[in-house]
Amino acid sequence: MFVLGVDPGLTRCGYGIVTRSADAAIPFKACLAGVIETSPRDDLAVRLGQLASDIDSILDEEHPDVVVVEKIFFQNNVRTAISVAQASGVILASASRRGIAVRQYTPNEVKNAVVGHGGATKIQVQEMIMNLCGLDEIPKPPDVADALALAICSLTSARLDAAIAAVQS
Rounded to the nearest 5 degrees, what angle is found at the Cα of 100, between the Cα atoms of 99 and 101? Predict the structure, then answer.
């Protein structure tokens, strides 16, 4: 399974494609990772259009089986939550138009799947992604590590879901 994780954001949107590794010592392979950036000086519609175009290009070139997007969560900053929700909507729509399966996980679900507890710090997530994917350095910026973590969360959850379904049938 080829999974695209996306940490949605309007100024910085992290993305990462992960698959399972054939190497038992390194369980996952990061196939592609990066960040899409838009300028806060540009009009909102221009920024969303750029994000849509860049996501469309990734989907058309890489053909992931699943797109995983972080569920929107905010405590204090409503303006940030709205722009993240707009970016998330663009990504979900791009995947849906192509018939690609979409999954969403909360930050705590991702941290729990990758680090083992939902209260993990950004640096703990980055270090664990480096180890799980056999990377030479910590993925930066944190948006990239978060995107890779989303993909890994989906891969581990899919395997668990399949095991539970096998037991129940």
Answer: 115
Tell me the catalytic residues: 7, 70, 143
Residue 157's domain is classified under what CATH number?
3.30.420.10
Range of the domain at 128: 3-168
How many structural domains comprise the chain? Answer: 1
Within 10 angstroms of residue 88's Cβ, the number of other Cβ atoms is 21
Amino acid at 111: K
pTM of the model: 0.91
Q: Are 31 and 2 in contact (CB under 8 A)?
A: yes
Q: Record the tokens describing residue 120, joined without a space.
A: 């993990």
Q: Residue 79 has what pLDDT?
A: 72
The predicted structure's pLDDT at residue 33: 97
Structural contact between residues 151 and 27, judged by C-beta atoms closer than 8 angstroms: no
| pLDDT, tens digit, 9 for 90 and up, residues 27-48 | 999 999 999 999 999 999 999 9
